[in-house]
Design goal:
Component of a P4-ATPase flippase complex which consists of a catalytic alpha subunit ATP8B1 and an accessory beta subunit TMEM30A. The flippase ATP8B1:TMEM30A complex can form an intermediate phosphoenzyme in vitro. Also interacts with beta subunit TMEM30B. The chain has 5 domains: 80 residues, no CATH class; 146 residues, Distorted Sandwich (Calcium-transporting ATPase, cytoplasmic transduction domain A), CATH 2.70.150.10; 185 residues, Rossmann fold; 247 residues, Calcium-transporting ATPase, cytoplasmic domain N (3-Layer(aba) Sandwich); 247 residues, Calcium-transporting ATPase, transmembrane domain (Up-down Bundle), CATH 1.20.1110. 44% of the residues lie in helices and 16% in strands. Helix 3 crosses helix 5, helix 4 packs across helix 5 and helix 30 packs antiparallel against helix 36. It is elongated and about 130 Å long.
Length: 1245
């Protein structure tokens, strides 16, 4: 099946290779972009005028300058402070003074806490109070205390992390000399000195370094998850004059640059020094979060500090996250409030009528108060608010917090989510979102470092029509399983490099196969890799991309070792023989060429061109006489079928005359001022013809272990995975196939196709009458035909589709013209109003959600967050984002749940995440096991908690019909106080902590068990009302069966124990048995602890009851313990025990019958798995013994991703000699000309 690629070349659409940054464009960029739109009537301001308006000014070595009044901003009323942020970061919420008031304020924002505070105040009023104040105060203090302690522990952890970062040490130039200073004390304008392996403390302008030409290598893993090094360079003028401490102390330049923003790929500014202006760009900047590598010392000037740095600007806002169940629970509590008020009002009205008819006329009820019936009814209303307050149980919230804390600990302790190689356990960094893990519908994942390891491995190759790479002996006999090659014969070999084909190694070492020799010679010569010689003799390669490094390392292991290079030569060791080649030209890679070449002069005088690149461009340039085309094509198909990244190698011999002619053209193109890149590409094209094919390489972009299986399993759980990456389109697509996110039976739709479909839908909507818009008819599907669909869209197209770019340009035009533009022409593709823009966004989300897979590539950090928020907004689905770098922080914070991959890539994503672990594969366990269990447990806990409190509280309601609606309680006061604390809390708490319908292995085997969580079927308003009616039924039985038993009853001793206190003991005992046995019936997973909790709760009830009914405690506290001897008197009557048994039996029997019928006639997936649990467990054991084969996937079409993933190399750097030339001993003055460093590819997001 052939797949159409939407090319950006020659189309009016955005360039797929460019990463758009319209989300945070600076004003000068907007002006530049808008100049593309012809507006002749408005003259453009000159460049100098625009530069003078740049508001961010930094003066070197001058701290007072940044505190001048012109740089002050208003904070509050007349209080002002400097607009320049300090370098300290603050992620904590409280300090010593603010903890208590702020924490209490936050806790009382929760409606239930505020309600109980109001209730406590009511209970202090004597006329209203029907219960002692301590019945509310004790639970309230416990809840507030536990929550405050948990918040304090969380905040102390944040304090520790902030302190660790802020107290890192760095050398700062103060008073003319470098002094060790803390990061938090660094200020804008300071000159700092950084050493090898130091983290960069702020966004710094590189002034000079110990390397030639102030070259400085940095590792950007914290920013983008990439471990390959990138180079930065200081200006030549600062490099030549700012090396010594004395020179740096006298540095007084003024930097004018853009305002702080989140753009990781761009920086513009100028440096004014000694009356000269020097342009600044991103290549001159060292960004906070990066690490200095392979550079002994470098010096820099702090431009942005703390919150103004680019890494912090990309972190997005910290959002307070709450679960769906939390929101639902709050609405249910509000519902209970309403029910409480209605019931209390009804009973108050009943008391009013009762007092008028009976109460006021009964002499024995006279209380000496001359209050009319209405006033007594009013007091009764507040009395019932207090009596029935346990319908809203305060212990609910503390129980929920305890359960969540326990679930978080289970995640932390899970050894199956522990990564031993890095000694990294899983970490739940929040305790409030666990049950939400069981409701995820969409996962948004980064690619580099999250799905992949960002490690490239040379796996296979084809040379002169023969394939190599499979396990083979030195004699060429194929093996099913082989041992890696022993590289001990090669002292330069990289010991980590693994290769299974012993035959190819033997072939190369024999030196008989000229093609194989030429193949590896090409790999060792045709590249832009830089080399560093370690003291122990080891070689360290610095490559512009991991692909380059993998190929040169492969050549090194096969005996072709790249040793060194200069501006015009390259030295390699060919099978222990050192050879130096003269480099005549280096034709670097770029996105359009998709290949790179090198022209070399051999020691014997021959001139040869070596070329490597994507098969799509190499095959067009092959000579008709080139051999092995078909066999290499077949091999390429096979390699692509295994999702390997392919690359063709070829060569061409050039005569001296031909080279001289071409060289003249090359030099002319190098100095042309008009469109130099296009001129060079045209010259390159002339010599890269009639190439002779040698073979092809196959590189594996190593996925993390278990990624395809994890994605497949999550897909079975109906979880959709979207990949949001800053990588290029073809690379992202290739990884999509590698990890089985994309499959051959999918129809892939690209940006142009998507835009067209959305444009047609929008045009149709415009032609419909307005009345159609008001009718909510279901939208037609975008893909009505059968089959699976996938979306691959670039950041440029995303802006085009969502009108982001147009919005910026319209805003700029408004500002410049000073008036509103006329209404848009409906045909120009622009939104006519906000409603139309919103409908466009809804259409895009609907289309994407119809697809099986979505890949967004070349997207910025802010675009990642925007995509997540669009799905959250329009699909109302629970989302999860997972990433590993600073560019993923915004996305992680925007999603309902953020997961950080912890490991070598840095800690930025982890610090902003809710959960962290080391490998993507652990995600399936986090969701399908811990998430599902947490959701089931929390739902079961809440259903039962509401039931047991309705059953407990509504006994007062039935009792009121027999007590003149006088807001008297049906139980003893101490029973009311201890019911939720001691008598019924432990069994339900343990169900919320430990219950599981099936074990973890079966949870992973049957992903469909996850669906109830996505659909929210286990806890919703339907379940709430079932719990309410169940509670009403149990309270009815609990009250009326004992009531009937007490009517006209005589005990064995001839006494009638039908008093109020004996009745209260019997109803309370019946309720305790019913509630604890009911939770026993609902428990799926029995442990000793559960059994102990149920029996222990009943035992505690009787133990405490007999204690507080004893004569001894009554003597000590006469007014507080009034039920003296009631329990021992009532519970020695056998017929009262029969009453309790009858009450409990009738309460439980209907529920047991309904459960039996439900599981027999309408069993859920979980019920079926439970029923056949033993059989499935035996199957799992057999599967483990067999060990299934490694994950394989076949497909028919071929992709070559090397050229697309490869970044622009160090060719300009090498050709200029700036990285190689030794530093001159005597330094001259500043140069007149400013060296231009070629702008490299944007750093991957």
């Amino acid at each position: 099946m052939s797949r159409r690629r939407t090319s950006s070349q020659g189309s009016l659409g955005p360039d797929d290779e460019v990463m758009p940054y319209s989300d945070d464009e600076t004003d000068d960029e907007l002006a530049v972009s808008s100049e593309e739109e012809p507006e002749p009537e408005v003259p453009h301001p000159p460049v100098e005028a625009r530069l003078s308006e740049i508001g961010w000014k930094v003066k070197a070595n001058d701290r007072p300058y940044h505190h001048l009044p012109e740089f002050q901003k208003k904070v509050f009323l007349c209080i002002k402070k400097s607009r320049y942020s300090g370098n300290a970061i603050k992620t904590y919420k409280y300090n010593v003074l603010t903890f208590l008031p702020l924490n209490l304020y936050e806790q009382f924002k929760r409606a239930a806490n505020l309600y109980f505070l109001a209730l406590l105040i009511l209970q202090i009023i004597p006329d209203i109070s029907t219960l002692p104040w301590y019945t509310t105060l004790i639970p309230l203090v416990v809840v507030l205390g536990i929550t405050a302690i948990k918040d304090l522990v969380d905040d102390l952890a944040r304090h520790r992390m902030d302190k660790e970062i802020n107290n890192r040490k760095c050398d700062v130039l103060l008073d003319g000399r470098f002094q060790e200073s803390k990061w938090m004390d660094i200020q804008v304008g300071d000159v700092v000195r950084l050493k090898k392996n130091d983290f960069i403390p702020a966004d710094i302008l590189l002034l000079s370094s110990s390397n030639p030409n102030s070259l400085c290598y940095v590792e950007t893993a914290e920013l983008d998850g990439e471990t390959n090094l990138k180079f930065k360079m200081g200006l030549r003028v600062t490099d030549e004059t700012l090396q010594e401490e004395r020179q740096l102390a006298g540095f007084n330049a003024l930097i004018e640059c853009e305002e702080p923003n989140n753009r990781l790929d761009k920086f513009t500014g100028t440096m004014l020094w000694n009356r000269e202006r020097y342009p600044l760009e991103l290549d001159n900047m060292l960004l906070r979060g990066c690490k200095v590598r392979n550079t002994e010392v470098c010096h820099g000037l702090v431009i942005f500090a703390g919150a103004d740095t680019k890494i912090m600007r990309n972190s997005g806002k910290t959002r307070f996250k709450r679960t769906k169940i939390d929101e639902l629970m709050n609405y249910m509590v509000y519902t209970i409030f309403v029910l409480l008020i209605l019931v209390s009002a009804g009973l108050a009205i009943g008391h009013t009528y009762w007092y008028e008819d009976i109460g006021s006329k009964a002499w024995y009820l006279y209380d000496g108060k001359n209050q009319d019936a209405s006033y007594r009814g009013f007091l009764s209303f507040w009395g019932y608010i207090i009596v029935l307050n346990t319908m809203v149980p305060i212990s609910l919230y503390v129980s929920v917090e305890v359960i969540r804390l326990g679930q978080s600990k289970f995640i932390n302790w899970d050894l199956q989510m522990y990564f031993p190689e890095k000694d990294t356990p899983a970490k739940a960094r929040t305790t409030t979102l666990n049950e939400q893990l069981g409701q995820i519908k969409y996962i948004f994942s980064d690619k580099t470092g999250t799905l992949t390891q960002n490690i490239m491995q040379f796996k296979k190759c084809t040379i002169a029509g023969r394939n190599y790479g499979c396990p083979t002996t030195a004699e060429g006999v194929s093996l099913d399983r082989g041992k890696p090659v022993d590289w001990s014969w090669n002292r330069y070999a990289d010991k980590k490099f693994q290769f299974m084909d012993h035959f190819l190694v033997a072939h190369v070492r024999s030196k008989k196969d000229k093609d194989a020799m030429e193949f590896f010679k090409l790999l060792s010569l045709c590249h832009t890799v830089m080399v560093e010689h370690k003291e122990d003799g080891d070689l360290v390669y610095q490559a512009a991309s991991p692909d380059e490094g993998a190929l040169v390392t492969a050549a090194r292991n096969f005996g072709f070792v790249f040793l060194s290079r200069t501006q015009d030569s390259i030295t390699i060791k060919e099978m222990e023989q050192e050879v130096t080649y003269e480099m005549l030209a280096l034709l670097d890679f770029n996105s359009d060429r998709k290949r790179m070449s090198i022209v070399l002069k051999f020691p014997d005088g021959r001139i040869r061109l070596y070329c490597k690149g994507a098969d799509t461009v190499i095959y067009e340039r092959l000579s008709p006489n080139s051999k092995h085309k078909d066999t290499t094509q077949t091999a390429l198909d096979e390699f692509a079928n295994e999702t390997l990244r392919t690359l063709c190698l070829c060569y061409k011999d050039i005569s001296a005359a031909e080279y001289e002619t071409w060289s003249r053209k090359h030099k002319e193109a190098q100095v042309t001022m008009l469109d130099r890149d296009a001129a060079l590409d045209s010259v390159y094209e002339q010599i890269e013809t009639n190439l002779m094919l040698i073979g092809a390489t196959a590189i594996e972009d190593k996925l993390q272990d278990g990624v395809p299986e994890t994605i497949a399993k999550l897909a079975k759980a109906d979880i959709k995975i979207w990949v949001l990456t800053g990588d290029k389109k073809e690379t992202a697509e290739n990884i999509g196939y590698s990890c089985s996110l994309l499959t051959d039976d999918m129809q892939i739709h690209y940006g142009e196709d998507v835009n067209e479909k959305l444009r047609v839908r929008q045009a149709n909507r415009r032609t419909e009458p307005q009345s159609f818009h008001r009718k909510k008819k279901p939208a037609e599907p975008f893909f009505p035909e059968q089959g699976k669909n996938a979306l691959i869209i670039t950041g440029g197209w995303l802006n085009e589709i969502l009108y982001e770019k147009k919005k910026k340009r319209r805003r700029l035009r408004l500002r410049r013209l000073g008036k509103r533009p006329p209404p848009s022409n409906p045909q120009d593709g622009q939104p006519m109003n906000d409603w139309e823009k919103e409908m466009r966004q809804i259409d895009f989300v609907d289309m994407a959600c119809e697809c099986e897979a979505v890949i967004c590539c070349r997207v910025t950090p802010k675009q990642k967050a925007n995509v997540v928020s669009l799905v959250k907004k329009y699909k109302k689905a629970v989302t999860l984002s997972i990433g590993d770098g600073a560019n993923d922080v915004n996305m992680i914070k925007t999603a309902d749940i953020g997961v950080g991959i912890s490991g070598q890539e840095g800690m930025q994503a982890v610090m902003s995440s809710d959960y962290a672990f080391a490998q993507f594969r652990y995600l399936q366990r986090l969701l399908l096991v811990h998430g599902r269990w947490s959701y089931i447990r929390m739902c079961k806990f809440l259903r039962f908690f509401f039931f047991k409190n309705f059953a407990f509280t509504l006994v007062h309601f039935w009792y009121s019909f027999f007590s003149g609606y006088s807001s008297q309680v049906g139980y003893e006061d101490w029973f009311i106080t201890l019911y939720n604390l001691c008598y019924s809390s432990l069994p339900v708490l343990l169900v919320g902590l430990l219950d599981q319908d099936v074990n973890d292995r079966l949870s992973l085997k049957f992903p469909k068990l996850y669906l109830p969580g996505q659909q929210g079927t286990l806890f919703n308003y339907r379940n709430f009302f079932i719990s309410l009616f169940h509670g009403i039924f149990v309270s009815l039985i609990t009250f009326f069966i004992p009531y009937g038993a007490f009517l006209q009853t005589m005990g064995q001793d001839g006494e009638a124990p039908s008093d109020y206190q004996s009745f209260a003991v019997v109803t309370a005992s019946s309720l305790i048995f019913t509630v604890n046995l009911q939770i026993s019936l609902d428990t799926s997973y029995w442990t000793f602890v559960n059994c102990f909790a149920v029996l222990g709760s009943i035992a505690i009830y009787f133990g405490i009851m007999f204690d507080i009914h004893s004569a001894g405690i009554h003597v000590l506290f006469t007014s507080m313990f009034t039920f003296t001897g009631v329990a021992s008197n009532a519970l020695r009557q056998p017929y009262l025990w029969l009453t309790i048994i009858l009450t409990v039996g009738i309460s439980l029997l209907p529920v047991m019958c309904i459960e039996f019928l439900h599981k027999t006639i309408w069993p859920s997936v979980g019920d079926k798995v439970q029923r056949n649990r033993k059989k499935y467990e035996i199957e799992l054991e057999e599967e483990e013994k067999k060990k299934p084969p490694a994950f394989q996937r076949g497909r028919r079409s071929r992709r070559s991703a090397y050229a697309f993933s490869h970044s622009r190399g160090y060719a300009d750097l090498i050709s200029s000699g700036q990285s190689i030339r030794r530093r001159p001993l005597a330094r001259g003055g500043p140069q007149d000309s400013i060296r231009e460093v070629p702008q490299r590819e944007a750093e991957n997001s």
